[in-house]
Design goal:
The protein is built from twelve helices and ten strands. Helix 4 packs antiparallel against helix 6 and helix 6 runs antiparallel to helix 7. Helix content is 38%, strand content 20%. It has two domains: 135 residues, no CATH class; 191 residues, tRNA-splicing ligase RtcB (Alpha-Beta Complex). Strands 1, 2, 6, 7, 9 and 10 form a six-stranded mixed sheet that branches. By secondary structure, the chain is α+β, with helices and mostly antiparallel strands. Strand 3 and strand 4 form a beta hairpin.
């Protein structure tokens, strides 16, 4: 586990999961050098150990999708998207219970050290970045990011393996991009006309850097980084590309997904998982989940309109539309 927390996707590659090309298309090349496993608790490691290589519940998913529309052929080609009808696979998951525990551990420590009086939510408690506690948390969070990289790398490997078993080949199954989410990263941005080094927190958001930015992987530096905005298992997901305008307007950020319209508890009260699955099957979308409750929580009306979310992102130039993807088969954790 300490090796995973220190090495990220590199550990997965060493164990035979994935390819070197996958690292070339992973944010940070699959490895956060600031990670320090010693600041991750034994409880977090114990939670993460049996969950490595798994999706998890909630809004995490694995979807087989088809390209429905292409808006920017040149950028789509750079990403390996060849046109309408192409089959793609999208995965959304992160650092599982390990990352959740890291956050819980340090929220508790920050409460003790600084309190959260005056904050609208206790989870907004914080510590100065350069403080001892701030540095410990940042290094632990980076270790959680490395776990997430390794986790997704293993899932990608097994996706290819599954396709190969059924189809006889996994030829052409190249990774487009593995992007971080719900994290804080050290970046340089303009503040009141002056370039400053900041810790940028993206919660419910994803990075959207445009062409030429040093942090963008070399393979995409000429076009900008790929951005993914998933919708729901019954609507669509989008591929966008980062923009220079986003760097000016939102420190290089756009939406991470459609966003919930309804709480999970409300969705469970209103919908039955079996009925939702049957409704989707009638529309040609197959859904499988560990529990019916998980399907009810994620039903289409529980989320905002992803088409509108992405239209706004495109018009605000926070992320430029590249392609629209529609679901064929969905696996929920």
């Amino acid at each position: 586990m300490n090796e995973i927390l220190a090495k990220g996707s590199r550990w997965s590659l060493e164990q035979g999961y994935g390819t070197k090309d996958d690292l070339a298309t992973t944010e940070e090349y699959g490895y956060m050098k600031q990670a320090d496993p010693q600041f991750v608790s034994h409880t977090a490691i114990a939670r993460g150990k049996p969950q490595l290589g798994t999706l998890g519940a909630g809004n995490h998913f694995l979807e087989i999708q088809a390209v429905d529309s292409v808006y920017d052929e040149k950028t789509a080609e750079a990403f390996g998207i060849t046109g309408v009808g192409q089959v793609v696979v999208m995965v959304h998951c992160g650092s599982r219970g390990l990352g959740h525990q890291v956050a819980s551990d340090y929220i508790r420590e920050m409460e003790k050290a600084y309190g959260f009086e005056g904050l609208p939510d206790r989870e907004l408690v914080n510590a100065p970045f350069q403080s001892e506690l701030g540095q410990k948390y940042f290094k632990a969070m980076c270790a959680g990011m490395n776990y997430a990289f390794a986790n997704r790398q293993m899932i990608v490997h097994w996706i290819r393996d599954s396709f190969k078993k059924v189809m006889g080949t996994d030829h052409g199954m190249k990774q487009v991009y593995d992007v971080c989410h719900n994290i804080g990263k050290i970046e340089k941005h303009k503040v009141d006309g002056e370039v400053k080094e900041l810790c940028v927190h993206r919660k419910g958001a994803t990075r959207s850097f445009g062409p030429g930015r040093d942090e963008v992987n070399e393979i995409y530096r000429g076009v900008g980084q790929p951005v993914f905005i998933p919708g729901t298992m019954g609507t669509a997901s989008y591929v966008l590309v980062g923009t220079a305008e986003a760097e000016e307007k939102s420190w290089g950020s756009t939406a991470h997904g459609a966003g919930r319209e309804m709480s999970r508890s409300e969705a469970i009260k209103r919908f039955r998982g079996e009925a939702v699955a049957k409704e989707l099957e009638q529309r040609g979308i197959l859904v499988k989940a560990a529990r019916w409750k998980g399907i009810a929580e994620e039903h289409v009306p529980a989320y905002k309109d992803v088409d509108e979310v992405c239209r706004v992102s495109n018009e605000a130039k926070l992320g430029k539309l590249v392609a629209r993807l529609v679901p064929l088969g969905v696996v929920k954790g």
